[in-house]
Amino acid sequence: MSQSAAPLHPYRQLSDNQIVSLLSSNNSDAIVWFFYERCWPIFQYHVYKLFPQGQDVEELVNEFYLHMSQDNWHRLKTFNGSSKLTTWISVVSYRFFRNFKHSKIDSAGLITINDKWESFVGDWVQESDAGMSMDISSALAEIPSERDRVIARELIVEDKAPQTVAKRFGLGVDYIYTIKNRIIKRIKERLKSYSDD
Question: pLDDT at position 166, please?
């Protein structure tokens, strides 16, 4: 008796436009599935081709997720259905990774956005006055979910590893990275607003 094929992931049965709609509504499960499962082989292939000396695939995918989710998913919403979503995302991600490679190499080597940002936040928290430190606390306080606020504090303020936080809350590491990216984006916007005042 032959074994039956494994059932398709429920999201695979959705149309491309339905997937875009889920992603642009910030559906966390859909985000993790699309960026870290469905399209992972595509991203992995591009990164290995563009960075033969080695580069953290997950880190670049995190950056690509942040890029795509900017301005209420404006870039994703330009998908018009003239090709398959995976074909379109392959082209968009390749261009992003290629531009990332060309724009992030300096005299110190390849420095990622997150490396620079986390270094900046670390120095900023240490050197800033109490009022500026309160601004980070205010940004964290704006996160609507109590659980995500606790996760944010452990990731950003206490600098705990995503794997540690994931284990503590019984969540997948990919989901924790999604939360972390969302938090970093929120704090960046808050600090930009602060610097513009």
Answer: 86
